[in-house]
Amino acid sequence: NAGVMQNPRHLVRRRGQEARLRCSPMKGHSHVYWYRQLPEEGLKFMVYLQKENIIDESGMPKERFSAEFPKEGPSILRIQQVVRGDSAAYFCASSADTQYFGPGTRLTVL
Amino acid sequence: AQKITQTQPGMFVQEKEAVTLDCTYDTSDPSYGLFWYKQPSSGEMIFLIYQGSYDQQNATEGRYSLNFQKARKSANLVISASQLGDSAMYFCAMREGLYSGGGADGLTFGKGTHLIIQP
User: Fold this and answer.
1) Residues pairing with B118 in the sheet
2) Helix %, strand %, coil % for chain B, to 5?
3) Cα–Cα nearest to B44, from A44, A93, A26, A1
4) What is the pLDDT of residues B7-16, one digit of tens each?
């Protein structure tokens, strides 16, 4: 029973490029959450999605960030025109009840 | 105001001793859930234990137990017989509106406690 899958595990981008982070939930889970963890900090909620619907995006920055969870395929967190301040670990969690986390994607912006 | 407060940035504990990691929370919602996660140096977030606000008994999972004191709004994690492999960051988290359908959908995390177990 595979857990939550995230790829890539590490991503390096130059300022101004786009970053795409993927998350495949656990089998049977239809709820996906994205969180961001800055160095030495706890996780901060960004967005909650169900298939084809954004349920709560109250934690998403207003610009450059978007998320989707299509009917088929993984959930995607997309960051356009990345800046150095976007460097962080991005975690995806899926749930039927308790949230189980993926291994995270560590984004470094040069 | 902080919704989740973890007052211990770091702790050193001798192997085989019991450890208590503090967590206090702030909510006006009567229905909420409290979670503890472990983050080892490899970076993944590992779910440890859950306590619902209406649960009558304190949650236990193997060597982990949650000392839930509702009136004090505290949910301390207790690790019995600590092991070297317990060295990690530990995060307390809360989800509000668990049964009412309201509240935030995501978890609110504390800043974490860095636990180091010494041989």
Assistant:
1) B14
2) 5, 50, 50
3) A93
4) 999 999 999 9
Token reading at A9: 């595990």
Residues of chain B with C-beta less than 8 angstroms from the C-beta of A49: none
- Please give the pLDDT value at position B7: 95
Nearest CA in chain B to A45: B106
Which H or E element spans position B107? Answer: none
| Pick from B43, B105, B110: CB nearest A42 | B110
Of A89, A83, A91, nearest to A106 (Cα)? A89
Residue of chain B nearest A39, judged by CA positions: B111
pLDDT tops 80 at residue A71: yes
Contact by Cβ (8 Å): B93, B19: no
Dihedrals phi, psi of B85, to nearest 5 degrees? -70, -5
